[in-house]
Amino acid sequence: MTQDEGPEKRGAAGEPVEPHDGERRADRDPADPENLQSRDDDQPAPALTTSSRMQDALRSMMSSSVLITVGAVVLALAVGSVLILAGDTDVQATLGYFFQRPGDFFGEAWRAISESYIALFQGAIYDSEATTPERRIRPLTETLTIAAPLIFAGLGIGLTFRVGLFNIGGQSQLVLGAVLGAWVGFALNLPPFVHVALVVLAAALGGAIAGAIPGVLKARFGAHEVISTIMLNNTSRYFLLWLLGTGAFISATPQVSPGLAETARLPLLLGGSFRLHLGFVLALLTAVALWWLVERSVLGFQMRAVGANPEAAGTAGMSVRKILVVSMALSGALCGLAGAMQVAGTEGKLTSSVYGTIGFDAITVALLGRSRPFGTVLAGILFGALAAGGRIMASRAGTEAELVTVLQAVIVLLIAAPPLVRSVFRLPEPGTSRRRVKEATA
Amino acid sequence: MKKSILGAATMAVAALTLAACGQAPADDPTTTDGGGEETSAEGGETSDVKACLISDAGGFQDQSFNQAGFEGLERAESELGVEINSIESASDADFAPNIDAMIQDGCTYIVGAGFLLENAIQAAAEANPDINFGLVDSGFSDDDFNPIELDNAKPLLFNTSEAAFLGGYVAAAMSETGTIATYGGMAIPSVQIFMDGYVDGVAQYNEDTGSAVQLLGWDKEAQEGDFTGDFDNQANGQNLTNTFLAQGADIILPVAGPVGLGTGAALEANGSGAMVWVDSDGYLTTDYGSLIITSVLKEIGASVFDSIEEQVNGSFSNEPYVGTLENGGVSLAEFHDFEGQVPQEVVDRVGELQEQIISGELVIESPNAP
Fold this sequence. Notes:
A: mainly alpha; B: alpha/beta; Rossmann fold; 6-stranded parallel sheet; 13 helices; 16 strands; globular
C-alpha cells in the first residue's frame, strides 16, 4: 500500500496534487452518504457508470492493507484445519470417545493437520521426501509454472478493476488467445525464435479481440460488461468445442488439436525434466511494464481517472468510451497471454478444457493482489503454490485437493471483509491516525 | 425466535456431548499410528506393486466411468494386497502433473481413466520406460493417426457396441411414443461406439417387428449427433433431455457419465419417461433406479483389476484388453424394477441376439470399434 501511494498523489505531469484524490476515498466508509452523493447527482453518461455500490466494494478491497492479507491467509489456513479434521475418518473415530481419552483426539487432529499442511508445503516448495535432488526442487518449479498463466490473467483482470470494470470474461479471452496462438504454432512453419514470438503475439491479439467486444458493447451501447463477458465465456467454450472438430484443428486424437511445432514452444528454463518455461519470466516483465503503464503513463492516468469517477474524467476532457474499450482490449490481451502459457508452455496443444478455471481463478488472484501488478505477481505465485501443493496433499495425505479451492475462496472472502480480520487480529482501523495527520497538514 | 435458536443450540451441544461418550478402543499400536503403512499389514501376501489411478474431469464419484475404475482399484487393494493411490483431475491441464504426482509417489503401474488421458499417458510412458501404464478406452497413436504400440503401456478397450445393440433393442421395444433419443458427453470414439450400437439395435427391432421406432440424437452414417460438450455439467444433460422430451421421445439413452444424471432429473420433473444408463449398473449407483430400464455395462473395474493382477503375477503384456459380450467385458444389466414390464418375447429375443453375437453369427459394425 505505502509504496503504491506515491504515484497516486501525482498528477499527469508529475506535480503534487491534493491528497483528497480517488484513492483516499476508499479509506472512508462506503456507506458515507457524502461519498455517494458526489457520484450520484448529475450524471452526464448514465450508461457508462458501473453501480457505485460495486465500485465502492471494489475500492475497499483494493485498499486493504498487507496485514489484512496476511491475516486472511492465516485465518484461511485455520478454517482449512477444521475442514481437514471434518474429512478425516481417523479423527472422527476418536471423537466418539472424546471424554474418555481426549488425548487421542488431539493427537489424531495434530497428525491430520500437520500431515496435510506438510504435504502441501512439500508439493509447493521443497519435497524433503524425494529421492533425487531434481525431484526435491521440482515442486517450486511447478508452483512457478502454474503461477505464470495466473499472473498474466490476474494482471488483466486487475487492470479492469482499476478502471472500475468487472471483467468476468477471462475464460473467453484465454480461449481465443489459446486458439489463435495454437493455430500460429501448428499451422505455420517459421524459424525458431520468430515462431514462438509470433505465437505469443497472436495469443495477445486473440485475447484483445475477445476483450474488446464487451468493451465496445459497453462504450457504444451501454451493455453491462459483467453480463456480456459471462455470455462470451459460454460462447467461446462451445466455439472451442466446435473448432476442435473442424478443418485444420482436427488431429489423430479427437477434441485435441495438432501439436505445436517445437519452434513454437516457449523454451524450458531448466531443461527437460522440469516444466518451468520462459513464460514465467515474461509474466514478471509484463508486470513491470504494466506497473509503468498504469502508474506512470498518460494512458494509465486516464484509466485510473475513469476508474475513480467516469463523470469527472469525462468532464475533464477524457474520452471515457475510448478508455473503456482500450482497457478491456488490454485486459483481454493479458488473459490471451495466459492462454499462450497453456498452449505454447505446458500443454503444447489445444484441448477442449485447456483453459481450466484460470479465467475465474484470476479474479481471485487480482482481488488478493489488490489489483496492483506486484501484488498480483505474489498472489499468482501463492495460488500456484496452493494448486501444486494441493496435488501432492491429495496423493500423499489423502486430503481432498478441493481444500485448496476452499482456502483460496476463504482468503478472498476475508479480504472483502477487512473489519472481520481486523477484529480477529486486533489490528488498528486503517487511516485513523494517518487521516488525522493529513488533515492537520491540509 | 432467539429462544428457539438457543434451544436448538443447546440440543445440538447436548447431542454432540453425548455422542462423544463412547467407549475408547483397547490400546492397539496399529490403530494409533494411522500412517500409510497399514495396507501391507492386512492384505495377506504383499507385493511391491503400487497401482495408481488418475480420473478425468468426472472425478471418482461420477456414478459411472471413473467410479467403476476406482472400484477395480480398491478391489485390487483388498484382494491382491497391493498398495494403491489415486488422484482426480479437474481439467485437461491436470493430466500431466497428476501423472507426475503419481510417479513421484512411487507408483509402479499407473492407469489413466479415459480416452482424454491418451496423450498424457503416452508421453509419460515414453518418458518413464521402467513404469507400466494402462489406459482405459483408448489405444495409442502417433501424430499421423497411425496406431502404435508402446512396450510399457496397455490399452483397456471395450467393444461396447455389442451390449449397446441389446440396450437399443430393449429401449425400442419399451417405447410407447415410438421415439427414443440418445446423446453423448463428447464426440469421442468411446462414446460414439455406444450410440452406433443403439442405432443398430433399434434398426434390428424395427426389422423384427415391422415397427418404425425412431432414434433421435445420432446419425450413424454421418457420425453426427447431439453432445453436451463435457462429462461434468449435468444441467446440459437436463436441457438436452427436455428438448428430446418436447420432440416426443420417451426413453433417453445418455452416454455422458454423470451428465446423464441431468436426464434423471429431467425425467423426474417430467413425470414420465425412462432411461438406459451406461458404464455401471445405474440402478445400483444412481438415485434414479426407478427410471432406469437397464444399463449397458462396461466392466471397467474388472479390466482395471485384471491388469493390476497381471502386474502382481509379473505377466504384464502391452497387448490390448478388449471387453466383449463373449468375455463378459461388456454386457446388459438386469431390468430390476422393469423386470415384469419388459415383454417376455423381447427378453427371449435379446437372449437370442446375444447368443448370435457371441457365436459371431451377428457382427455389430462400428467405425469406432477397437
